[in-house]
Design brief:
This protein is of the alpha+beta class. It contains 3 helices and 14 strands. It is elongated, with a radius of gyration of 23 Å.
Length: about 230
Amino acid sequence: MTTPEADNPTQAEAASGPQAAAPVSAPPLVATGKPEARGVEPTRPGMKWYVLRVASNKEDQVREALERKVKVENLQERVGRVLVPTAKEKRMKAGQVKIYEKKLYPGYVFVEMATEPDGSIPENVWFMIKETIGVGDFIGSANKPTSMRDHDVEMMLLAAAKKEDEEAALQGLEFAKGDRVKIKEGSFQNFEGHVDSIDETKGIVTVLLTIFGRSTPVDVEYWMLEKL
């Protein structure tokens, strides 16, 4: 699947009919393995997954609103799960490592839905979705939403599955042992050396510098380095 347009349309920019959809592709998905093999619920019978474009930073708000509306309007037979896949990410802030939830596909919400035999969205479902603040339009072609491919659905479901023991990745820590680096700040500013080891938990990189003709290990915070 190819990368979609960068702009995320708001509700005012969406098309005006129950079959309208933008002829663009869904966001790229990355994961492996069958969902059911990993304890993840597969696609529900009679339903398929569709990609809904939403306003930036409104993904959770849209998801919560749709889930609430589906229950209130008793549309569970037409609309199943509404997902916003996230992943844990470590970031350095004020010298401390903090863990955040990063949205894997900003500007997109995944909706499990049963459409009409011709592929169109039932009118009551369409208006329930379109009247939600922050909603744009479904990804699709020929004025109908295009369902996701089975393989992409599997990857999305795995990415969306919450893992309590998931190890958070440290944002910006893109160094490997042996990389040649330059120190940008601190006591050893402008010194160059090679990465000897990395402590991903603390965000500390041990760099081998040549000082007075000897190889000396120096611990440096990862954000103070640049790769050469």
